[in-house]
Amino acid sequence: MGQPVREYLLTLCVTAAVTYLLTGPVRKFAIAVGAMPEIRARDVHREPTPRLGGIAMFGGLCAGLLVADHLDGLNPVFQSNEPRALLSGAALIWLIGVLDDKFEIDALIKLGGQMIAAGVMVMQGLTILWLPIPGIGSVSLTSWQGTLLTVALVVITINAVNFVDGLDGLAAGMVCIASAAFFMYAYRLWYGYGIEAAAPATLFAAVLMGMCLGFLPHNMHPARIFMGDSGSMLIGLVLAAGAISITGQVDPDAMKLNFGGTRDATHAMLPVFIPLLMPLSIIAIPMADLVLAIVRRTWNGQSPFAADRGHLHHRLLEIGHSHSRAVLIMYFWSALIAFGAVAYSVHSASMWIVLVIVALSAVGLVLLLLPRFAPRAPQWAERFVPPRYRHARSEPETVHSLASEGDEEVRGERTPVAAGVAGVNGATAIGPRSRFPDRRKTGASR
Question: Residue 409 in contact with residue 416, Cβ under 8 Å?
Answer without folding.
Answer: no
